[in-house]
Predict the 3D structure of the following.
Amino acid sequence: MIEACELVKHYRASDGSVVRAVDGVSLAVGPGEMVGLLGANGAGKTTTLRMLATLLKPTGGTARIAGYDVGADPIGVRRHLGYVSATTGVPDRLTAREIMRSYGRLHGLDEATLGRRIERIVGGLTLGDFIDRPTGRLSSGQRQRVSLARALVHDPPALVLDEPTNALDVVGARDLLALLDRLRDEGRAILLSTHRLHEIERRCDRFVIIEGGRVVSQGTRAEILGRHATLEDAFFAAVEPAAAAAREVLP
């Protein structure tokens, strides 16, 4: 449902040098599967997710969402993908209901279907207390829930989430992750990045760890852990050699 094959994104720096933000990332997420994308700041997580969401054009490689190529058919990708960015906000003057209605109409939903979708999302994300309040008057955690609601309104089979619990408190993060569990159980493919390893250590079916724009480890929790006690220990064991090797080749 979510596929990347040797995905590459290079930038030209101001001094003329090439920055390899993503350098040959391959991963796959099947229906009914949740995969955690892990990496330090600058490892290439957000760039990878933005390419999957058609917000950045890959320098090389291929990527598909539900069989639709991100380069050849970005509209097809967006119809089948729900994307939540770590930085994209929601319009301050609109309410959560108005935002969901506008995005649902953009996706061609009829009013009856849209009404049912909104009611389901309101219950799942606990939006009822502020569904008709302008989002500019909401807390950061409430705004993050609205952002997720916007991504879900067209009922996509695939979700790509960049730090979805970043602005949430403990209760909000728990509720969101419980919703993701239900969405995965319904057959959706979910790829999410996070720095909160404890939240997803026993939730994700598999993990992909990247460092320096490259995959340095991937597999199930048991495969990633090996002889390590926690996912955090395994994470550092995977990324530190790669980071050290990258420093050695710097001029």
Notes: The chain has one domain: 2-198. Strands lie at 2-12, 18-29, 33-38, 60-65, 68-69, 81-84, 158-162, 189-193, 206-211, 214-219. The chain has a mean pLDDT of 91.
